[in-house]
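Late entry, written up from scratch paper. The run itself happened at the end of the previous shift, but nothing got recorded in the book at the time, so transcribing now.
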Amino acid sequence: MFKSLNYYLCYNIKKDCINILSSYFSLLNHIIPFLVRTYSAPIYFHIENKMFTYTAKIYFDDIEINQSSGNNLDSLFIWMLTQQKGEFGNYNGQITNNKTHLIEKEFRTSSY
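Output as recorded:
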């Protein structure tokens, strides 16, 4: 009798845990899309007519395809990484300091 009672209690505890986890994941399925829809990332605009600290250039093989300038090194690096737009090929880029003419950051992708 104790064995069947113990089995019954363990079974109910497991069943309750599964129900709680199921409710939790169901709640997450409703919260996560809401959070994704309401999040807005900061946007940095790059105006080319001022003297900026950094210039970012993106190349496909050896051909320059895009250029942007700004004072924030990290935002320019993120801008460079997002310009590939899911296309395949040999993309690379570099951020140059306009005062010292040294390359501050660079990236290279080769995806086919």
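Residues 2-38 form the longest helix (37 residues).
(Scratch paper discarded after transcription.)
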